[in-house]
């Protein structure tokens, strides 16, 4: 009963059109689902990923127009990594980021891998991490119509960084999920404790969480450029139901079973207040759209389809049909 790795990560944007442009045109990820936040159907929920949106490749965004910027602090998911195949790919990205005016660091070594730290247009803290020496959870398959060459393309989610005041509590909950500490690395902030690196299952970049203890920060304020939650992979519905029993036995408050149609979920907060989700590997994102046109139209799960007219009336138009840049 261990989770298998990272399933997806959900962040927030205040500019859905700009978000779509950056993540598809600059980062070259595929929009594999344009749907709505099932808990607030006035907001888009965009899913980016590899060619099919395989588990472990999905970076998603809730669109909240007018939301203020996030304020960094504890009790937050403070860093999101995206995998690329090699150190050579990082050299490609250094040039691409410069050409597109993306704020970024040089290639640097962190936690035993070469990385580039960068920001999206709303200040989300991101990193590209090289899989040059990686062993563990397999990467995804880049979309062959991406504007980024396949050898340099983003192949999935890498390590997720959690910033907390009391790391022992987060370590304990991750331990319950099957994570084990693999090493500690020097803090990014002067005078702070080492970052605790934990991995689960097959390990590697697709199954790693980095816990950053910070005693010098107040609580984060959520907003655009911030992360809402991180989801971890479980095999299927039966395993998810077993996890509900485990959390109830541990007296950890949770959502119980949640039907998301494209996957099934369970939500709970670890003691430092960060929202965790457990999500099943299936059914997947091509259950209601052809593979060739994923993300081009507004997709709604069957239980929201009867509200389509009113939902579409409350959404700002967003054209996600494949434009000419795909073939350039």
Automatic annotation (TrEMBL):
Signal sequence bounds: none
Keywords: Dioxygenase, Oxidoreductase
Keyword Chaperone: no
Molecular function terms from GO: dioxygenase activity
Record-annotated VOC domain positions: 5-131, 156-281
Source organism superkingdom: Bacteria
Pfam families attached to this UniProt entry: Glyoxalase (PF00903)
Name this protein carries in UniProt: Ring-cleaving dioxygenase
Native species: Cohnella luojiensis
């Amino acid at each position: 009963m261990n989770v298998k790795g990272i399933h997806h990560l959900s962040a927030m944007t205040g500019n859905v059109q700009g978000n779509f442009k950056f993540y598809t045109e600059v980062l070259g990820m595929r929009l594999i689902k344009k749907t709505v936040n099932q808990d607030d159907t006035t907001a888009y929920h965009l899913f980016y990923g590899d060619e099919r949106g395989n588990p472990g490749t999905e970076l998603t965004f809730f669109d909240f127009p007018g939301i203020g910027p996030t304020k960094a602090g504890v009790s937050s998911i403070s860093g999101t990594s995206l995998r690329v195949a090699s150190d050579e790919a990082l050299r490609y990205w250094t040039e691409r980021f410069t050409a597109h005016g993306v704020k970024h660091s040089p290639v640097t070594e962190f936690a035993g891998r070469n990385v580039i730290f960068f920001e999206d247009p709303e200040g989300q803290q991101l990193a590209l991490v090289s899989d040059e020496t990686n062993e563990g959870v397999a990467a995804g398959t880049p979309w062959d119509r991406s504007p980024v060459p396949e050898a340099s393309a983003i192949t999935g989610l890498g390590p997720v960084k959690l910033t907390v005041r009391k790391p022992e509590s987060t370590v304990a909950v991750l331990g319950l999920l099957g994570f084990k500490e693999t090493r500690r690395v020097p803090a990014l902030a002067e005078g702070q404790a080492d970052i605790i690196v934990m991995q689960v299952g097959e390990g590697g970049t697709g199954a790693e969480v980095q816990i950053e203890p910070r005693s010098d920060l107040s609580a984060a304020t959520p907003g655009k450029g911030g992360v809402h939650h991180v989801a971890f992979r479980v095999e299927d519905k039966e395993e998810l139901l077993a996890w509900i029993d485990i959390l109830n036995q541990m007296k950890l408050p949770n959502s119980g079973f949640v039907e998301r149609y494209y996957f099934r979920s369970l939500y709970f907060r670890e003691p430092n207040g960060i929202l965790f989700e457990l999500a099943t590997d299936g059914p997947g994102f091509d259950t209601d759209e052809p593979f060739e046109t994923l993300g081009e139209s507004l997709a709604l799960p069957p239980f929201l389809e009867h509200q389509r007219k009113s939902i579409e009336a409350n959404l700002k138009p967003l054209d996600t049909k494949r434009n000419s840049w795909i073939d350039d």
